[in-house]
Write a structure and sequence with these properties.
Elements (H helix, E strand, L loop, with lengths): L5 E3 L6 E3 L2 E3 L12 E4 L6 E2 L9 E5 L2 E6 L2 E5 L2 E13 L2 E13 L2 E13 L2 E33 L1 H27 L1
Parallel strand pairs: 4-6, 5-7, 6-8, 7-9, 8-9, 9-10, 10-11, 11-12
Antiparallel strand pairs: 1-2, 1-5, 3-4
Length: 184
């Protein structure tokens, strides 16, 4: 299974197999490993971590395009999209997280959709969650049933609707002006 996870070392050549360690053994076995730790000795970009087929994935000093797992723990790395029960990000970045529980500490998340979101000194563009707990964090668009803690929100759901209406009106007027200049 470890052969399926590829790493790009930045050269124009090809990809080389990524070294992995599994809990209880030194190499990947035929059955799906319980925990996969991507080795921080040779940081790089993993193209498809879903090929690892692990219940728990821990990523340090690397980048993954897409992960589907039970639990994802990301430290000083980046993930494009993650779907898991629990996603934990520490000093990293995640493009999109769909999970039951998302925790971001000193990192950035572009989009979070979760039942529970916890942010500590973090930033996010969009957070949609039932419960949000934050400490010294910032969110651009926040939709939540319950928010606790110190969070700076640029647009709540009312502000987002007003922003959309004004932007729609602006682009409609701009489109009419451009249409009139092209005819004349």
């Amino acid at each position: 299974m470890a052969e399926r996870a590829k790493s790009s070392n930045g050269s124009a050549g090809g990809a080389r197999p990524r070294r992995t360690r599994t809990a209880g053994s030194a190499s990947a076995t035929e059955s799906a490993p319980k925990v996969v730790i991507l080795d921080p000795v040779a940081p790089g970009v993993v193209e498809d971590a879903a090929a690892l087929g692990a219940e728990d994935v821990e990523l340090r000093l690397g980048a993954v395009g897409r992960v589907e797992t039970g639990r994802l723990e990301l430290s000083r790395g980046a993930v494009g999209a993650a779907r898991a029960e629990v996603v934990t990000v520490d000093q990293g970045a995640i493009g999109a997280a769909l999970a039951d529980r998302v925790e971001v500490s000193r990192g950035y998340a572009r989009s979070i959709i979760a039942r529970q979101a916890q942010m500590d000194r973090a930033a996010a563009r969009v957070v949609i969650a039932a419960n949000v707990t934050a400490d010294r964090s910032a969110v651009m668009f926040l939709v939540a049933r319950k928010v606790e803690g110190n969070v700076r929100v640029l647009f709540d759901w009312r502000g987002a609707i007003a922003f959309g209406a004004v932007a729609g009106l602006f682009f409609a007027v701009l489109g009419r002006r451009r249409g009139g200049k092209q005819r004349g």
